[in-house]
Request: fold
Amino acid sequence: MALPSLMPLITKAKATEAKIQLQHAYTLEKSYFFEQSRYSSDLSEISFEQQPLTTAGGQANYKIEVVDATPNSFKIAATAVVDFDGDGSYNVWEIDQNKKLVERIKD
Reply:
C-alpha cells in the first residue's frame, strides 16, 4: 500500500546510477579528447565498460550509449532497461561535452 508513494523516491535513487555512469563516460571522453584531439563514438575506444544489465542477469539498470560524436562534441545517453514505476515510460538521461546533464525522459 505504501509502495506507490515511495515510487518517486525509488526512481530518483535509480537515476543516481545513470548520473554516475554518465559522469564516468564524460571523464573518459575528455581524457580521450586530450590524447586524440577528437571525441569517439565508440565506448570501448574510450575504455568504458558497460556493466551487465538487469535484463541479462546483471545489476545495471541503464544502458549507456554514445548518441552523437563529432571531433568537437559528443552526447552520451543512459536509457533505463527497467520501467521503474510501471507507467510504460523508460527514464533517459544525457550528458554532453560541456558536462550538461539533462533528464530527457522522466519515469
User: Anything to note?
Assistant: Strands lie at 62-70, 73-80, 92-96, 101-105.
